Amino acid sequence: MIARIWHGRTKAEHADEYVDYVNRTGVEQQRRTPGNLGSLLLRRVSGGEAHFLVVSFWESMAAIEAFAGERPEVAVYYPQDEGYLLELESEVVHWEVSVAELAATLTAAAGTA
Predict the structure, then answer these.
(1) Domains and CATH numbers, the chain
(2) Of 50, 56, 73, 76, which is most buried by a Cβ count within 10 Å?
């Protein structure tokens, strides 16, 4: 399994709106891509900025390429990202997942933060 990790940041006042946008665009496209095993959208507000990590899990690099294209290390952006993000980071990182054990309650707790 491979984890694909993207980072972005917005102004803090746009954090909730951007979560909705990312879920409707990138995370939804990931869900529809064969070989996607799931995604996490993480948010941390610090000072006047909100940082986001999208960690998606994939069966293979071929599955990631089906989502991201021939150069999977290049970040995927959507039309309104430029209006939200303080910069467009050009690359994502890929990590081999060595151990993956998640409690069944993790999914249920995701909405309680």
Answers:
(1) 2-112 (3.30.70.100)
(2) 56
DSSP string over 19-66: HHHHIIIIIHHHHHSTTEEEEEEEEEEETTEEEEEEEEEES-HHHHHH
* Residue whose entry in the numeric block shows the structure tokens 């933060």: 113
The per-residue pLDDT for range 85-107, each reduced to its tens digit, is 999 999 999 999 888 776 655 65
The pLDDT value recorded for residue 110 is 61
Are 32 and 26 in contact by the 8 Å Cβ rule? The answer is: no
Rounded Cα distance between 23 and 78, Å, is: 12
